[in-house]
Specification:
Blueprint (H helix, E strand, L loop, with lengths): L19 H8 L4 H17 L11 H4 L4 H4 L1 H24 L1 H20 L4 H13 L3 H12 L5 H29 L4 H20 L13 H24 L4 H23 L7 H4 L2 H29 L12 H29 L1 H21 L4 H27 L7 H29 L1 E2 L6 E2 L1 H22 L29
Membrane topology: Multi-pass membrane protein
Keywords: Membrane, Transmembrane, Transmembrane helix
InterPro entries: MFS, MFS_dom, MFS_trans_sf, Tet-R_TetA/multi-R_MdtG-like
Length: about 500
């Protein structure tokens, strides 16, 4: 059932049941700026859930009365939940209303934040963090909402801005979380998230028009379960393989089992009349190579997220390690997120003028240059600031281009599901990156009075590897056709008819 606006009924006398103010409320069209701002703020809050717990992570074993190994699940659970929920929530949005699903995910975020705010042991904290991870699907959904509700001329810039929130929210939120954690009880982090979520729920409910574009058919429950199982197995194996051992029985079972499930899932989806993910649409050359390139960009972005904090916080020994506290570390990483925010309008203009493929290739090239700088400059704090800033510029261009490439190549009724799958590709790249970086830094260490620390060669190897992966991404992006048989989005101006709905396609 779709969401409906109330009809404009009339009294027998001819007088309207609704007042003039209420009639204007029904037929109003919020400004594009207001809708973009609402969805951007929603994306920032969801992305903040990734780093909200980082400032207190070293203290979690004590705070939750658990072991160090078990405390890591507070982060891993969020990653897994976001990966499996994003394509599912996207498909639900295509079928039952994107705004409706944005509101559902915001409600889930609030519930997860409240549970975490009331948690003093591991299990309830994991429940809360899983719910917060589920809410990350709101970013892909918000991008898809934009296609339906704003004017086409404003779409590229809006998409670039909301897409950037994935990096901006984490980078900017980290120092904010650090300040709160240092000066207040750590539960305040989650109370603040819950209150902000409630406020944004009201804003989205008030500003964003009702979604009326729907995909026919029934929801593919079996496909959703299959995708969840397959992705969870693979991501869990990648995330914990280094701890469990890559040849251990649990790791191999998860890797093989996940691969088998996903192969079976793909075969099932190809035969299903209303699949969770339309693999035929997503196998189109523009979508396929955009998704493959997204894996490399997600990988690259997390290389710096996993490496630079270690370099900044490590004690200075033989010129390596910068000995900075957590708050300074967070501030040094903030330029990356800020640059993603500030370059998004420029990326949108470039995509409009030269095509989103150009923005993707340019962004990936800038990322590769940032890695070259990282391999050469790792001995001063300003070196880290420079690498972080250049990385943010590159990721900003790349992230802005990917959703546009996807939306230009899929039907409007598949937008949210296709964007959700693209987000999964980024997550997959990030998960692999975290594992590979951890292996490299742990595999090349020197003994110091402060304990084993990564060597200079280890840091340089990480950056060289990152550059190599991005070069592969550039080559993949070159296979994206410059011109495609695009599925054009339709007019975004909603019109209210008596007894009808706001239809952004009219």
């Amino acid at each position: 059932m779709g969401e409906r606006l109330p009809p404009t009924a009339s009294l027998p006398s001819g007088e309207s049941v609704l007042s003039e103010a209420e009639r204007r409320r029904l037929t109003r069209r919020p400004s594009d700026r207001a809708m973009i701002a609402a969805l951007t703020a929603t994306g920032l809050l969801a992305a903040f859930m990734q780093t909200i717990i980082v400032p207190v992570l070293p203290r979690l074993p004590e705070l939750l009365d658990t072991s160090v190994a078990d405390s890591q699940w507070v982060l891993i659970s969020t990653l897994l939940a976001s990966a499996v929920s994003t394509p599912v929530s996207g498909r639900l949005g295509d079928m039952y209303g994107k705004r409706r699903m944005v509101l559902v995910l915001l409600a889930i975020l609030v519930a997860g934040s409240l549970i975490s705010a009331l948690s003093f042991t591991l299990i309830p904290m994991l429940v809360g963090r899983v719910l917060q991870g589920i809410s990350l699907g709101v970013i892909a959904l918000s991008i898809s909402v934009l296609r339906d509700v704003i004017h086409p001329k404003n779409l590229p810039g809006a998409v670039a801005l909301v897409s950037a929130t994935l990096g901006v929210g984490g980078a900017v939120g980290l120092p904010i979380a650090g300040v709160i954690a240092e000066n207040f009880d750590w539960h305040v982090l989650f109370w603040a998230a819950a209150l902000t979520g409630v406020a944004l729920f009201v804003v989205v409910l008030w500003i964003i028009p009702v979604s009326t574009l729907r995909t026919a058919g029934r929801f593919d429950y079996l496909g959703a379960v299959g995708l969840m199982i397959g992705l969870t197995c693979l991501l869990l194996a990648v995330s914990k393989g280094a701890d469990w051992g890559w040849t251990s029985a649990p790791t191999l079972a998860l890797l093989v089992g996940g691969a088998v499930v996903l192969v079976g899932w793909a075969a099932y989806e190809l035969r299903h009349p209303s699949p969770l993910v339309d693999l035929r649409v997503n196998s189109r050359r523009p979508v396929l190579f955009t998704n493959l390139s997204s894996i490399t960009v997600g990988f690259a972005f997390f290389v710096t997220s996993a490496t630079l904090p270690v370099l900044l916080e490590a004690p200075t020994v033989n010129g390596i390690g910068l000995g900075q506290p957590l708050l300074i570390t967070a501030l040094c990483l903030m330029p990356s997120g800020l640059m993603m925010f500030f370059v998004s309008p420029l990326a949108a203009r470039l995509s409009t003028a030269r095509g989103p493929k150009t923005s993707l290739v340019l962004g990936s090239t800038v990322i590769a240059f940032a890695f070259v700088l990282g391999a050469l400059l790792i001995t001063e704090v300003w070196h880290v600031l420079l690498v972080s800033t250049v990385m943010g510029i590159g990721v900003g261009f790349a992230y802005a281009a990917q959703p546009t490439l996807i939306m230009n190549s899929v039907p409007a009724t598949e937008t949210a599901a296709a964007n959700g799958l693209n987000a999964v590709m980024r997550t997959l790249g990030s998960a692999v990156s975290a594992t590979v970086v951890g292996l490299i830094l742990a595999g090349s260490r020197i003994d110091t009075p402060h304990g084993p620390l990564p060597t200079e060669d280890a840091y340089r190897t990480v950056f060289v590897m990152g550059a190599a992966v991005v070069v592969v991404g550039i080559l993949l992006a070159l296979f994206i056709p410059r011109r495609t048989q695009a599925y054009q989005h339709t007019s975004s101006i909603p019109i209210i008819e008596a007894g009808g709905e706001a239809d952004p396609r009219s």
